[in-house]
Amino acid sequence: MPLQERSFAPASVLRQCFRRLPFGVGASEGRDRERYLRAARSAACNSVSAALGFAVVVLSVSFTLPYLGQERFGIWMTISSLAVMLQVLDLGVANGLVNLVADAKTSDDHETLQRIVTRGIVLLTAIGVAAGGVLVGVMMLLDFQHLLKIESPEVAREAVLSTFTFIALFCVNIPLGGVRKVFFGLQRAWEPHMVAAIGYLCSLPLLYLCARSHAPMPYLVLCTYGVQVATAIILLVRLYMERMFRLRRGIWSGSGLRDCTALMRTGGIFLILQIGMICGNACDPLIVSHILGASEVARLAVAQRLFQAITVAMLMLSGPLWGLYADARSRGEKKFIRNTLKLSMCVTTGTALFMSALILALSPWLLKVWTGNHLDVPIELRCAAAVLAVVEAMANAFTIFLNGVSELRPQLLAVIVFCAVSVPLKICLLTKFGTVDWVIWSTIIASIVADYIVYIGLFRKRILAHASLGPTA
């Protein structure tokens, strides 16, 4: 039997499946099929990475909560949340690289692609150094014991050392985050996912060893966030081997200023969008810790992580579509965008609803197995986290579409509305009712208000025109 007849490679199976999906006609049909293949490959690799990442999240609670105690565990979760909260310090340049790289790839100009990638990474390196100086200066001015309401001076010193460790890793991760985004623009998102999976595999035994030896919090930061930062260097080496990243003299000569300006302009919009995400979730531990105390952060963290599998799974499905939307936009192929958007929103909403209901129903048993009755998570908090998981899944799928078609200004206005509603509402409701679930309900309310006013009320025609779903604005 010929070799090709005996082959049963996953790629061949995927090609057979995608022939049944609605594609374009003529030359676009082959591109549509190839885009879906790349997205499926990315989703498959992301599923491996997500499963391992979820295992790290689950086991980090089981391993460390018994010996850290509720207060120290809450502090560690607060420090861990800084990875999302401080990502705005890359000024949005990493996200701005995705569409610029996708446009350069469409033109098949390797010289332009190499120039954009190299200049973007160098710019992010400079931003990382500057961010490090700012963060260290801020740390010297803060009173951690008062800020997080820590009772023990010894625990406060441990928290400070853990935060300094995190800052060093975070500043290194700023240019490496840009490297990851380059692969999204190249429609090769599966490579960062596999590298992340390698990091999670390394973190699991390290977490176990830290738990066995009752290691202090700085070691926990190193064996989780630190390992992810270290493994990302693999991607930088790969770009160098493919001659997409080259450091040479005169790197900023010629069109260097124009490329830098384009990155900063696009990045500035992403910066404001990232600030909105911080208001949505990342600053919640700090707000809760300051108003209710660090011990309440532990309940919030466990409830959020209980439903984190939904967010991860939905990003696994929709995340790889960013580069695909950008490529289709560059070629003017609206039919692909329309079909993909419909499919993405339907699958995301249905899957998120099912998973959320299932996890909520099983949550008493899951929490008993997971935390060993070391922590009580009220049903009100679990219900709020379940609803938020569905809202976030739908919002993420739609945001990926908006990013891919470079429709950033409506997002900008939506973020402004969201921030104006979210932060005061969280502070007000937490102070009035004194239960941690209100920080999540505040996020849900602000998200719905902002989306309805901006996307449905103001920019509906303009947004849908990208997918030929409505008249051009």
TrEMBL record:
Gene Ontology CC entries for this record: plasma membrane
Keyword field contains Transmembrane: yes
InterPro entries xref list: MATE_fam, Poly_Biosynth_Transport
Annotated membrane topology: Multi-pass membrane protein
Keyword terms of this UniProt record: Cell membrane, Membrane, Transmembrane, Transmembrane helix
Record-level Gene Ontology MF annotations: antiporter activity; xenobiotic transmembrane transporter activity
Transmembrane segments: 43-67, 73-100, 121-142, 162-183, 195-211, 217-241, 262-287, 307-325, 346-367, 379-405, 412-433, 439-459
Protein name per Swiss-Prot or TrEMBL: Polysaccharide biosynthesis protein
Origin species: Caballeronia pedi
Principal place of residence: membrane
Top-rank taxon, per record: Bacteria
Localization terms from the record: Cell membrane
